[in-house]
Amino acid sequence: MHIAFLSLDYPSAAGSGGVGISVRTLALELVQKGHRVSVVSIQTGKAEKISFTDEGIHIRLFRQGQLHWYLYRIPLAGPCLGLAVRELERSWSGYQLLKQIHSKNRIDVIELTEQGGFFTVLFKFCRVVMRLHGEKYTIFRNMPCFTMPFRVHLSRLLQRFAIRHSDDLAAPSRAHAAEIADEIHLSRAGIHIIPHLLSFPDGKTDTADLPEYIDSSRPFFLFAGRLERSKGILTLLEAAGAVTADIPRFRFVFAGGGHPGLPRSEIDRVVQEKHLEKAVIFLGHVERRMLFSLYSRAWCCIFPSYYESFGMAALESLLMHGCPALVSRTGLFKEIYSPDMERMVFSPGAAGELAAGIRDVVDNRTAFMKMARNIKKAYLAEYRPDELLQKNLSLYQCAVSDINDGTGRT
Fold it and tell me: 388 and 377 in one domain?
């Protein structure tokens, strides 16, 4: 088969989110099985090539349109319409590239994400499946005391059209499938549950990769992800401020780039208010092998997101090195949860619960390491990598064969 991905996130020198990493991981496995794989994504830097091959994956990048950028600067109407116009710009550019690829090498099935699929579905020229990774709308719905901006509602109308008119849908967790099913009034049975394949390092990682300014003699807690409001950064800083006097030898390391939705000035203000200047280290974006080294050295990883469709970073830290973790009750952790995990989970946004968890893991790390081992065992027993790959192949083959699986999708 020739499988094409339209993903607005793909790993580059500028970094990548969970969507890009999951797309590349799956694409590499498909290439190894003998399939042709193309990926259409956004060019993130002017010097970046727009057409190249990444370990057998054919990559085509498009330059993002600028109409939405100018529109944002028009008072009142601009900010309301800008996000929807950006959605249309990206969708049109992605659709055009897919058509070009299809004219030279016939595409059998296209996999979309929630963002950027409008025109590919509207002018459908082959079978289309959509992977529901999670978008702003779903995340914001799960953030308490947050007013959903009109621009997000408007943009979501375009995304809903693409979701409803895709030939098949897949979600990485039952929890996220339920969110989407409730939103678009679809039977939950109409969404395939296929957790993401996880990417592991090629060789053994060690502490030689760590920056010199991370004192290896001082234990640290690690956060890995974008520094944005929905990731619970402010919750973590509040919890750190509550415990830093009790555990002065511990530091809090943040590995991830910034996000315009949470200005660095606001983060710095909270750091000063909580007297955390000597307790926190912000690394910015780090490459994958560095991240794996951080996982192996961290005393514990902390993931305080308000919402996750899957929870890739938390699972990587637990499965790769058995690193203890404190995670909010969201994503896949709702599904692999068991009573013996109670000490490692907390309610999203609950800084007090997180602070208590931090104190607990400082005093009882051995117990938390045992919990991590149990989670790894439970996860691998239910989600074997070879079985997950076969589920993805079955999804594509079902779409290509135009087989109705009885869920009512056409």
Answer: no
| Order of strands, sheet of 251-255, starting from the edge strand that comes earlier in the sequence | 280-284, 251-255, 220-224, 300-303, 325-328, 345-346
Do 89 and 229 fall into the same domain?
Answer: no
Q: Report the CATH number at residue 370.
A: 3.40.50.2000
Domain shared by 230 and 374, yes or no: yes
**What one-letter code names the amino acid at 389?**
L
Same structural domain, 53 and 148: yes
- Kindly list the strands in the beta sheet with 57-62, ordered across the sheet, starting from the edge strand earlier in the chain: 51-54, 57-62, 36-42, 2-6, 109-112, 127-131, 168-171, 191-193
Same domain (yes/no): 176, 212: no
The 3-state DSSP composition of the chain as helix, strand, coil percent (nearest 5) reads 45, 15, 35
- 269-296 residue pLDDT tens: 999 999 999 999 999 988 888 888 898 8
> What is the sign, positive or negative, of the torsion defined by CA atoms of 133, 266, 12, 73?
positive
For the stretch 37-50, pLDDT in tens is 999 999 876 656 88
Whole-structure pTM value? 0.88
* DSSP for 22-54, written as a single string: HHHHHHHHHHHTT-EEEEEEE--STTS-SEEEE
Q: Are 170 and 131 in contact (CB under 8 A)?
A: yes
Number of domains in the chain: 2
- Identify the bridge partners of residue 54 per DSSP, sorted by sequence position: 57
CA–CA gap between residue 132 and residue 356 (Å, rounded): 34
